Amino acid sequence: TGSGLELPSHFSPIYFPIGNAATGFFVIFAVIASVVGMGAALAGFHHVRAWSHESLPAAASSAFIAWMLTLLAMGLAVKEIDLNGRNARLITMEAFTIILSGTQLFYILAIHGGR
């Protein structure tokens, strides 16, 4: 930008055509968390099949990373709820993300509880 140009007051570096300023960040982190969560589910499935001490660290660490990314997406969902201006699809995605953050915690506890 030039020296005389200013950014708009509601500028977001990640533009998403629906929602508010937090929508773009929320969607990106929700997709990243879902892909990492699928990898964690595969590692957990392998751990259940093998049921050995060698497969536990991979399952537990990938589950923990997926949970942390889901908590980040949940925080952005809460921020998006706070800013208003959403449609029904975003409300559904926010609800699934918030519920998933709780169920992933139980998944991590189940992996560690089955030692």
TrEMBL record:
It comes from the Eukaryota. Keywords: Membrane, Transmembrane, Transmembrane helix. The lineage of its organism: Eukaryota, Viridiplantae, Streptophyta, Embryophyta, Tracheophyta. The chain crosses the membrane at residues 20-44, 56-78, 90-110. This is Plasma membrane associated protein-like protein.
